Amino acid sequence: MSALTLATWNVNSLRQRLDGLARLVEEKGPDVLCLQETKVRDEEFPAEEIKAMGFTHQVIIGQKSYNGVAVLSRRPFKAVGERRAWWGKDDCRHASVELDGGLEIHNFYAPSGGPTPDPEKNEKFAHKLGFYDEMAQWAADRKNDDRPMILVGDLNIAPWENDVWNHKKLLRSVGHTPTETERFQQLLASGALTDVGRRFVPEDKPLYSWWGYRFAQSFEKDYGWRLDHVLANAAGNAAIAGYEVFRDTRTWEKPSDHVPVIVKVA
Asked: How far is CA 126 from CA 118, 139, 140, 205, 227, in A?
């Protein structure tokens, strides 16, 4: 498996973020891009503009206005994973590829869960929990696979205390409730997966990848959450030699509320 740079980014509408994507490519030189919330139908995906950036190999799973994922690569795919409807909803939340050399990459956009952390009152929260339960079973089924696998994306849970700007204040907020953080930990345990971010940045240090739009000074005051993740099985983790949260993009013109997370694969 040859060395490469892999970036994951919730772009929050790809067509609005094309200039930012081009700048990311110029500054960081990723070989593989995993995008979430592309918010564009496949037939309207800016494939040619992205090919011009060097990403001639593309897997696009999109829909109008919501969700959508894409895996874009300078390197050819050995295989493209089967499209799967998670929790009975074909809502464009997962794409996977295997690169020449054997690295398997899974790109996920997990449900956000809506405003209320009660599955009986809020169907969106029930969807999120059910989605995570299916992910945990999927990971368990893959647990003994010795091929290198890296799972990336906006997983919409900040699992540890220092993954949010105020742990005690946010314990009842969707994305950081005990119910959700337990689901995240179950996913890790089920698949024997490593939380790569916390491998490189200790759990007692703040680590964020999202600053909301609703409060204009959220980034300035560093009111952040870590919602964007890189997880890896043993073989994948052993190959990861570097990790970066590229915060600068939050200051660019027309920024996404998320920033890219980048790993170096040796």
From this structure: 7, 20, 21, 31, 19
**What is the SS3 assignment for 99?**
strand
Tens digit of each residue's pLDDT (9 = 90 or more) over 124-154: 999 999 999 999 999 999 999 999 999 999 9
Compute CA 71 distance to the chain's CA centroid, rounded to the nearest angstrom.
Answer: 11
E strand segments, 26-122? 32-36, 57-61, 69-73, 77-80, 94-99, 104-109
Name the one residue in this structure whose structure tokens are 């009842």. 172
CB 228 within 8 A of CB 8: yes
What count of Cα atoms within 13 Å lies in the side-chain half-sphere of residue 256? Answer: 31
Rounded Cα–Cα distance for residues 24 and 133 (Å): 34
Please calculate the CA angle 214-220-223 and round it to the nearest 5 degrees. 60
- What pTM value is reported for the model? 0.98
Alpha-helix runs per DSSP H in 91-201: 123-141, 167-170, 178-191, 196-200
